[in-house]
């Protein structure tokens, strides 16, 4: 029952952006403010990323249950207010409130599972977590379109309220964890510096190459601000008694390595997920709804492989092989996807996506498992939040950098094929509505399809090159025994301490 409630909470956090993305054209049509459209997503992403490590630390200091319930309430308040927004400014502000709660949802779910289930047993439930992700990615656009068409865009936010209420009631009733009360002051300075640093990084990846040129004073200024804030953050964290992000957790070799791997997985995963639907809609002629369904081979492979890896990990206690194989499969899958062109069939692209999905299935939950096994129980929250944060930031950088590569290649190909007219067509962001594409003259339509195919080729090729670093890092992981497994004589004192802690 507890796990069911946690899965609902995770679904809330992951489903929201998928649903809202489908409703955005309708929202803009009613509220106006097209020039501020990107901020509806950016405000949510910023608040989620900046609050993630703080939620994790608060859970470690004051108890997981109360902090998790608070994050659900904040998310529901933000959802209700977003649904009642009367203009774009209000919607952006309320989306920030919603994102603040969402940061606590994801970290809370992972940390509570880390508290309740020993790492050795956690593999049994990996399939459930991967299943939630698949449901969100496939069902989000479908649900969003249906709700917007039949109930109105405001219900894209209101739909969170009954789901959140169920999670709130179930967690309150069935989750029983020890209460904590830390006497140490919250590290406000560290939290502020970390928030400024993360905000600067996310804004660089959001604005770079779109709102502002990469070498503009705004982007360079944000880069300087981010570096200074994070440098000061490191200095502060070395001196405070209860740091918001204890730096000692990075002294563990496995934790540092899996953080790097998580960053790279986020980079290539979110980058590829962004451009696959675009390729399917523009080059393969799929509708927006069908492009979501065409991701099924990747998501099903991810879910099945994650379940398999979890079961084997529970039975054997071995996990390093899955990270190595996962890194190799992601590199192979991205390399195969880079071979797609205008003649690639949906079956072929589906097979390539299945390879990528299998690699993601080996890595997604296993990296979190290793991160949680590499920290002490008292640092479970910050360990979980750090792994989540670096994956999120990796995704932001992936979308931004791979997006810049895509845009450059599309523009270059259009200029090569139809001259100055091609540059003019793609100067606004290199994306064209599929309906508008169908109305173009055959020569221009063919040029644009080839341009998008060329852009996605370079995106996946560069993704494959970058993923090699994650594959290489996986080989340096150490097979540290998972907590909660059979104890050897040398491990008995530690096993006894764990058993006592779990009993309490």
UniProtKB/TrEMBL annotation:
Coiled coil: none annotated. Pfam families: MFS_1. It is a multi-pass membrane protein. The keyword Membrane applies. It is found in: Cell membrane. The keyword Membrane applies. CDD domains: MFS_Azr1_MDR_like. Its main location: membrane. The chain crosses the membrane at residues 37-55, 67-86, 92-113, 125-143, 155-176, 188-208, 214-236, 257-279, 291-309, 321-339, 351-371, 392-410, 459-477. It comes from the Bacteria. Keywords: Cell membrane, Membrane, Transmembrane, Transmembrane helix, Transport. Residues 2-482 form the Major facilitator superfamily (MFS) profile domain. InterPro entries: EmrB-like, MFS, MFS_dom, MFS_trans_sf. PANTHER family: COMD, MAJOR FACILITATOR SUPERFAMILY. This is MFS transporter.
